[in-house]
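hey so u asked for the seq, here:
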Amino acid sequence: MGMIHCEYARLGADDFEKARADLSWALEHIDELADEWVQKDLPAQEAKYFSIGTVWGPLHTVLRVHGGMPVDPVQGGAELGPAEGITPVRYLSPQDVAKAAAFLVGTSFDTLAPLADARHVCDEDVCPDPAEHAAETDAERLSEAYGELAAFYGAAAEAGDAVVLMLN
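ran it, structure tokens below
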């Protein structure tokens, strides 16, 4: 589990329609966005591509336990195409991105932090040795990832972008 990363790409309206019509183009375009993000080391609110790394499982668990998400910003959305990574490539429409952003920006991590449970590395999966995933369940790292995710979704919503989600 520790090596699986949750990655996101923002797509403007034209690119979003093109991606829905041509998965090969979409994946190639997303790879280009990923290369740009790595080269420029852009902050989440400026990036067209972004990763919360390996903390996606515990962060998703915290969000699910909270229960207030109108849409799932970590593993939700509709299927864009078959699995290139761990799960099928998914997307949130601009309308769903706006809902996710409103929740993430409007809900402080301090509200969510008490819901974190180091035994739950991913949703229902209970890790027999929580120490094995200490980096993924560290409260400071979860808070940082949450803030970055909120900034990424906030910028995407402001621009009217769709978001593609991938577990790789």
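DSSP finds seven helices and seven strands in the chain. The longest helix spans residues 139-159.
lmk if thats what u needed
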